[in-house]
Design goal:
Structural class: alpha+beta
Largest sheet: 4 strands, antiparallel
Distance between the termini: 31 Å
Mean pLDDT: 86
Number of helices: 7
Shape: elongated
Number of strands: 4
Low-confidence stretches: 56-64
Order of helices and strands: EEHEEHHHHHH
Helix content: 40-55%
């Protein structure tokens, strides 16, 4: 099933229920299945169940540890290996990072250091929009 949401006066969607959880939402966020009949999210039991399971953590197999925190630290300390991209499922970006590190003799690690600091400074919702849910193959900043 596909859903639409309204955030900051802007309609976003269609997206799956799982994708919806990556946005900065609450139980009163307007939701629609077809883009026209809007109701608060608490009127959708399937969304509220998923929301309650995911509240306070980011899904992705990190056992409650914020994926943003994990990726930020990996980018700072091991960024030249592209591990932060493998964690969020961007395999192509991880391989490209390794190649860029080799070609630049490790110089690419300066970019990943900056990327890691920026990851630690952003919210989980912003991190998920920029790195997890993006259609970009190689999200840098």
């Amino acid at each position: 099933m596909q859903y639409y949401i309204t955030i900051n006066g802007r309609t976003v969607g269609p997206m799956s229920a799982q994708q919806l959880m990556y946005y900065d939402i609450d139980s009163n966020t307007p939701v629609s299945r077809d883009g026209s009949d809007w109701a608060p999210m608490f009127t959708y039991p399937e969304l509220m169940e998923l929301y309650n399971r995911h509240r306070g953590r980011v899904s992705g197999g990190t056992d409650g540890v914020s994926q943003r925190l994990l990726c930020g630290l990996l980018a700072i300390f091991l960024g030249y290996l592209g591990i932060q991209y493998f964690v969020v499922g961007k395999t192509t970006a991880g391989i490209l990072t390794i190649l860029l590190s080799l070609v630049t003799c490790g110089g690419w690690s300066i970019i990943t250091l900056i990327q890691g600091i920026l990851m630690l400074c952003m919210s989980d919702a912003e991190f998920n929009r920029k790195y997890v849910q993006t259609t970009s193959t190689f999200p840098i900043f």
